[in-house]
Amino acid sequence: MHIPSETISKEQILLIVYFILIILFFVIFGIIFFVAFQRRKNKLLLEKFRAQQRFDEELQNSKLEIQEQTLKNVSWELHDNIGQLLSTAIMQINIASTTLDTKGQDTIKDIKTLVGDSLQEIRSLSKTLNHEVIENIGIEKSIQVELDRFKKLNFLNTEFVVTGDELQINPKDEIIIYRIIQEFFSNTIKHAEAMNLTVKLDYNANDLMITIQDDGVGYDMEAVQANSGLLNMKSRAALVDASLRFESKIGQGVLLTLKYPYREKTKIK
Is the Cα dihedral 21, 22, 27, 32 positive or negative? Predict the structure, then answer.
């Protein structure tokens, strides 16, 4: 039986069309599958990243809680135990001074003054270590206590400037910010060989800008990027969504700039 060539051409065309449709189906199916797979993969990667972030944040918070509790315990020991010992020493000095001549009393007076100053220093130091005290008196007063301590001990000449309308900071954030400032103070005392220290707090509508400047020896920024003190300050700043920047050159001191966006704000009347 002879099949017309026209009929064969139509059948071939239909086969080609069916073949093309099948290929298109598999291509579209493959694209949809690939896109869905990529979305699922990206979602899993994002969930993993967020879980890692939460883990790192929880780990950092746990470390901070342990540090704060340790500092609190040290504060109690200084205030209650060592402070009590020094107070007892002053009482004993007073008793001993009654049995001495004038020259001996003058010597005892100098010793009493030295012990009394040591007692006041320990009490001031204990306040800066206890986060509950910092929460009660606020960040400004806490900074002022620390700066007054430096001046009294002749460590530094200090200046403290506050501008803008004071806003109440989230208490937990306030502790972290103060510890950053305290870390900078510690570095200045230990390494900077500075004579002057200036602290400025500027309350703006949406954020608190803190700048601290010393006139010490400074450092090479590239050489100390992995410094543990700087890393501690930066990790603490990240916990409160604050930006932290250091500027320094050898022989030109160090400038810290911290910008803290308010999480909860209430104007203090």
Answer: positive
